[in-house]
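Good day; I would like, with your permission, to put a structural problem before you. What I wish to show you is a protein chain and, alongside it, a tokenised description of its three-dimensional fold. I would ask you to consider whether the tokens describe a fold that such a sequence might reasonably adopt. You will find the record immediately after this paragraph:
***
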Amino acid sequence: MNRTFATAHSVVDPNGGAHNALATLSHTIGKTRVNWVYEADLKSFFSSLNHDWVERFLAHRVADPRIATLVKRWLKAGVMEQGEWSGTELGTPQGGPISVLISNLYLHYVLDLWIEKKVGPKLEGELYFIRYLDDFIVCFEHAESANRFEQVLHKRLDRFGLLSEPSKTRLVRFGRFLARDCARRKEKLETLYFLGMRLYCSTAKGGRFKVGFLTEGSRLKRFLNKMKFNMRKWRHLPLRDQAKLINQRLTGHFNYYGIISNYPALKRVYYQTLLYWRKVLSSRSQRGRMNWEKYRKVLKAYPLRTPKIRIGFDHLDQLSFL
């Protein structure tokens, strides 16, 4: 029986990151006998961590009591809201430098080792596990194994004070064999959602199966709304400063979502930003809208960052942990 557990931790692996997790998932689905995929997300994960369990897990990994004491103080530091301090009995502050490390330690014992040592050997067929922070995917060969896993997972999470997010947790038929069968029957294929990307079954040149990537619709809408809000806030700044701020946001978006097959979504972000900046610049004066001739001169002097694919299929294969 083939058992592969690929866990993507940017803190543990210096070359890790969300792209590695996506690459591993793409490679797994495209090269193995995956037919069922369980996609999951943990509800309010960072605010649900049980401090007692954190301390017990930490004792397994760290022998120095001074480090353990520092972590305990961090967990008990509390939060300030409107000038008032309140203690914390659960969770770890999001955005803190140690929060990601604690979350990975927690899920290493709750999920990683449990699936590898307890669940995997008892299930039939191939099983592949990919996790990035609190988002994780489990791939199965057989439906029976997927259903059994789903039943025991909820009990496992409940034991450690965790819950899955119902709106982001589901079992999906997905894989290269499914794509072939659905193509014959002319049936619609299902899609996956992982780390802000929508994954779908597609074909490369020559008919070879591949996993396609598109920006998740809610993420795309959220980014455009945030960009529009910021551009309205910046509209009275000098053009040079506006272009710099806009390009900073575009660069970050393109760097993350610049995966092969996702170019249409990147292009949409670029053109929506282009059009809205003209609208914002037109609202700076009561003399009327900025015409396209003048706007082209602005863009020539202060060009916006154009979309670019950073990660192709060859790069995805190189990133894969498998």
Observations:
- The chain has a mean pLDDT of 82.
- The radius of gyration is 23 Å.
- The chain has eleven helices and ten strands.
